[in-house]
Design brief:
It is a single chain. Among the domains are: about 50-105, N-terminal domain of TfIIb (Single Sheet), CATH 2.20.25; about 150-190. It contains five helices and five strands, in the order ααβββββααα. The protein has helices spanning about 1-15, 20-25, 115-135, 150-190, 200-250; strands at about 50-55, 65-70, 75-80, 90-95, 100-105. The longest helix is centred in the last third of the chain and has 50 residues, at about 200-250. The chain is elongated and about 180 Å long. The protein starts with a helix and ends with a helix. InterPro entries: Cuticle_Struct_Prot, Insect_cuticle. One of its GO terms (molecular function) is structural constituent of chitin-based larval cuticle. This is Cuticular protein 9 rr-1 family.
């Protein structure tokens, strides 16, 4: 029974009208509200100009930057710097509603072809295409370029040149043969055995006299040497005993 009473009370509370209570609460949050968002438009662009230079130490400049705005959204500028190869690089740029457009100064620029070069290139490629197409389809009308024949003057000049060349070659061969013959003749006559001349009577007499005198001098030197050796031996034989006797007398 108590359970039924509690259930009836809970249902009554849930279905009761409490709008008058909510409206009287000053801190109550309204059931329905609207959110509004306000945006502030960006300020219009203003023209400006700036430029600066900088370096790693006073008096040294290794980078610059300058920029100009026209006030309508277009900005133009340029900046320079020193790359690792110690070359100055400059970048010019334009920034507008279509994006950022840089122009690099160090981009390789190819040579501009003149009108004559363009026409020559067109003729070359046209002829190349014709030849390639003819080779691909075996065009029978394609003619082989023949080597031009020599004219009478050219043929005469060639014959004269060959004749003169043969004469010069024959003359060189003759001179070479003569020089070789002279060399062989010189070697044949110069390689003779040189005989030793005989001594005259005076030379023979002088040689004999010289040898005789040499023998006499040698014999005299031998005699003197023998005498000196005998004297030395005699001196040693007589002086040693005397020295021994003097020694015994003193001691």
């Amino acid at each position: 029974m108590k359970i039924l009473i509690v259930m009836f009370i809970a249902v009554g509370v849930c279905t009761a009208d409490v709008s008058h209570i909510i409206s009287q609460d000053p801190y109550a949050v309204p059931l329905e509200y609207h959110t509004t968002t306000t945006t502030t438009p960006p300020p219009p662009p203003h023209p400006y100009v700036f430029a600066y230079t900088a370096g790693r130490f006073p008096g040294h400049v290794d980078r610059t930057h300058s920029e100009v705005s026209d006030g309508s959204g277009t900005v133009r500028g340029a900046f320079s710097y020193v790359d690792p190869r110690l070359q100055v690089r400059t970048v010019e740029y334009v920034a507008d509603q279509y994006g950022f457009h840089p122009i690099l100064s160090h981009e390789p620029q190819g040579p501009v072809e003149t009108e004559a070069v363009q026409k020559a290139a067109q003729r070359h490629f046209s002829l190349y295409n014709r030849i390639a197409e003819a080779h691909a389809h075996h065009d029978p009308n394609l003619q082989v370029v023949a080597v031009p024949r020599d004219s009478a003057a050219v043929a005469h000049a060639k014959e004269k040149h060959l004749s003169l060349y043969e004469k010069i070659a024959a003359e060189h061969a003759r001179i070479g043969a003569e020089q070789e013959a002279q060399r062989l003749a010189f070697e044949a006559t110069s390689l003779q055995v040189v005989a030793v001349p005989r001594d005259s009577a005076a030379v023979v007499h002088a040689k004999e006299k010289h040898l005789s005198l040499y023998e006499k001098i040698a014999a005299e030197h031998a005699r003197i040497g023998a005498e000196q050796e005998a004297q030395r031996l005699a001196f040693e034989a007589t002086s040693v005993p005397n020295d021994i006797e003097e020694y015994h007398k003193l001691h």
